[in-house]
Design brief:
globular, five-stranded mixed sheet, alpha+beta
Amino acid sequence: MKTRRQGIAIVLMVGLLSLGLAITAAQAIDLGSILKVGGVVWLVSQYGDQIDSFLTSALDERDAAARGATKVVPILSLGRGGYVGAAQVVGNPENVKSVKAVVQVEGKFGSARAQLLLPTTTDKVSGSPDRAKGVGVSAVIEFRI
């Protein structure tokens, strides 16, 4: 059963990568970007448990498994270029349940680069995100829009 889940997760990851490469190769910025974002968000919502199992197994094989409950949610990045993908969050089971997305904000300050990964309890990008307390990010998979 575990091997089957890992196989499904690998197929999904390859599918996500193929989707990203196909849209990038076609240079379809507007429609392609919309399709990529929608496709990745849909895949994460449908197969988040399998992606979560795959990430947990991969981290466990390297003795880096997260301690606590985990969940995979969509991630949107803002700042230098746009990205979309998935993030695995970890923490107390009740807190992890409330997470709907991760917002990533990037900035460059001279020769330094900063990234803020913010697990949120809302799936809306507008306004100020509602930070999920007691939850961290253990893995990120993202594609350039």
